[in-house]
TrEMBL record:
Family: Belongs to the TspO/BZRP family.
Annotated organism of origin: Raineyella antarctica
Location within or outside the cell: Membrane
Protein name (record): TspO and MBR related proteins
Pfam families per record: TspO_MBR
Entry's transmembrane regions: 32-52, 78-97, 109-126, 132-150, 171-192, 204-222, 229-247, 253-273
Main location, first listed in the record: membrane
Keyword Calcium included in the entry's annotation: no
GO cellular component: membrane
């Protein structure tokens, strides 16, 4: 097999130019895909907030409202979406004007970022139709995509504080919050389908699900090297589940206590994983 370095200079330069051309074309395609995905995500969001359709809490027969199930976070929890959407917009701009063309980690995450935005929009549009079990499948797919994306980010450090905030911070929050939202989504689907084990039984199931969420948080902390944004969003969602069970209803002290314990477990596991990690850059926020 002839190696590039064995070729005469004109041929070697031609190969370099060909590779660079393909990389440039691929990066341009990625940027266009991410931009279109953001626009689709914005349209989906307009449906979700009631501008073009029903608000999320009013769709699917109200099954996704903040007081619909034992695992629904209280209303203020959803304000985290504003931060995530702002981060997604900043990420899209970063793709065009940042260091993406020189960053392998950006090329490894751009397509996944675009897919995550499309899945976000798909979830909002599916819930508009009341297809709540299909929304469960969509949000599971979203968690998988975000997990892959953040795993890719964890494999290499960012290029500075700005990139860590815009890229690692945004998708860390996105993954952590959607993990909690998945638990709430499954609970809502079950309730909408009339699945119930009675008041006590439903509380037991909710506690078990929260412990599973804590276990997932521990796994994410270990696998991702203790990323602050992931833990912060997870803890945020779990804390607001606790608030909802103590204030808004359905009321449940055991579920609230389990949510607080789950949040503390996630935070503790992340801090321990972060201290043990020797590959993460100091000050990384993802």
């Amino acid at each position: 097999m002839v190696k590039q370095e064995d070729l005469p200079p004109p041929y070697s330069q031609s190969m370099d130019q060909g590779v660079q051309s393909r990389m440039t074309t691929g990066l341009l395609g990625q940027r266009i895909f991410v931009t279109i995905s953001l626009l689709v995500c914005v349209v989906g969001t307009l449906f979700g907030i009631g501008v073009l359709g029903k608000r999320v809490e009013e769709s699917s027969g109200g099954a996704l409202a903040a007081d619909a199930t034992l695992l629904a976070p209280a209303g203020p929890a959803f304000s985290i979406w504003s931060v995530i959407y702002l981060g997604l917009a900043a990420y899209t701009i970063w793709q065009w004007f940042g260091v993406a063309d020189r960053s392998l980690r950006e090329r490894r995450t751009g397509w996944l970022a675009g897919v995550s935005m499309l899945l976000n929009a798909a979830w909002l549009l599916v819930t508009q139709q009341g297809w709540i079990w299909l929304s469960v499948l969509v949000i599971f797919a979203l968690v998988v995509v975000l997990g892959m994306l953040v795993r890719n980010l964890a494999d290499s450090p960012g290029h500075g504080p700005a990139e860590r905030i815009v890229v690692d911070g945004t998708f860390g929050l996105y993954l952590g919050w959607v993990t909690v939202a998945t638990c709430a989504n499954v609970s809502a689907a079950g309730a909408a389908s009339g699945i119930s084990l009675g008041a006590s039984g439903d509380q037991v199931i909710a506690v078990v699900v929260l412990l599973v969420a804590a276990a997932i948080g521990v796994v994410l902390a270990v696998r991702l090297g203790g990323r602050i944004a992931v833990a912060a969003a997870l803890a945020w969602g779990l804390a607001w589940i606790a608030v909802g069970r103590l204030a808004d209803g359905p009321l449940s002290v055991p579920v609230a206590a389990a949510a607080v314990v789950a949040a503390l477990i996630v935070i503790a596991a992340t801090l321990v994983a972060r201290m043990r990690s020797t590959t993460r850059p100091v000050g990384a926020v993802g």
